[in-house]
């Protein structure tokens, strides 16, 4: 969940009529609006027109509202390409990509942002793995396979260990994302039994969940732990083994029941 995004918006000159902005909304979080009249230094409010055509006076006691990006930047596959990078811009861009482009992945520099669609998507087959294998990140659409390919290339080319951090709130899809990354490594590495390591690692999940999962008000089977899985590769880049190096159990969240 996106809880807070710092503003990277420089102070703007006095805004003119037609300037497009975002304003907070109790239901939609942020809604678009535009200035109905010029704003001058000393004004205490802005006269804004909403998408419905209704006008309202917006108090600027807490500062001017964040500016909207040009239409040409809507749906950018990398958030760092936006002219204005702030919470409403990030949320809107992810919304556009998810609903209009059917894309659950978006870059933010070297970070991959993923939205859980809560359904299976046909974007993880072997043909997709083949399409991402050997390609540069910048040349391909955002995907977990692109991140995995970059780590794999760095490891084989520079002979240096690589780490992929999968982070997110309960139900975000961390376990499934790790599974797809392992599937990619197994396939491009030419492992004899491509799914053997992946299956063995995933087979530990029921054991780990038995002592490290708890029911919450939002998730009936919520992980209360983090883990560090180390995948070992041979000289030819093939997977030769895997191990769980670290297991972080948050005991305070599994030893007693909270209300509800």
From TrEMBL:
GO molecular function list: actin filament binding; ATP binding; microfilament motor activity
One Pfam family named in its UniProt record: Myosin_head
Keyword Transmembrane helix on entry: no
Signal peptide (from-to): none
Coiled coil feature spans: none
Keyword terms of this UniProt record: Actin-binding, ATP-binding, Motor protein, Myosin, Nucleotide-binding
GO BP field: actin filament organization
Chain residues that bind ATP: 168-175
Domain of life from the UniProt record: Eukaryota
Domain Myosin motor per the UniProt entry, residue ranges: 74-260
GO CC, alphabetical: cytoplasm; membrane; myosin complex
Annotated family: Belongs to the TRAFAC class myosin-kinesin ATPase superfamily. Myosin family.
Protein name, UniProt field: Methyl-CpG binding domain protein 3b
């Amino acid at each position: 969940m996106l809880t807070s995004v710092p503003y990277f918006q420089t102070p703007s000159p006095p805004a003119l009529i037609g300037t497009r902005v975002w304003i907070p909304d109790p239901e939609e979080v942020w809604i678009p609006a535009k200035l109905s009249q010029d704003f001058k230094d000393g004004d205490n409010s802005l006269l804004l027109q909403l998408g419905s055509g209704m006008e309202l006076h917006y108090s600027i006691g807490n500062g001017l509202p964040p500016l909207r990006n040009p239409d040409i930047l809507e749906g950018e596959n990398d958030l760092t390409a936006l002219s204005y990078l702030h919470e409403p811009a990030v949320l809107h861009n992810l919304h556009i990509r998810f609903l209009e482009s059917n894309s659950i992945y978006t870059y933010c520099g070297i970070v991959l942002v993923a939205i859980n669609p809560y359904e299976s998507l046909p974007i993880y087959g072997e043909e997709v793995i083949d399409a991402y294998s050997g390609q540069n990140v910048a040349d391909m659409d955002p995907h977990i396979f692109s991140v995995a390919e970059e780590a794999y290339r760095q490891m084989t080319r520079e002979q240096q260990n690589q780490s992929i951090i999968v982070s997110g709130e309960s139900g975000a899809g961390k376990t499934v994302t790790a599974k797809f990354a392992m599937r990619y490594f197994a396939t491009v590495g030419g492992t004899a039994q491509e799914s053997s390591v992946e299956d063995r690692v995933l087979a530990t999940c029921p054991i780990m969940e038995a002592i490290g999962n708890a029911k919450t008000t939002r998730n009936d089977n919520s992980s209360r732990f983090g883990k560090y899985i180390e995948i070992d590769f041979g000289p030819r880049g093939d997977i030769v083994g895997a191990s769980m190096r670290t297991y972080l159990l948050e005991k305070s969240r599994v030893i007693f029941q909270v209300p509800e």
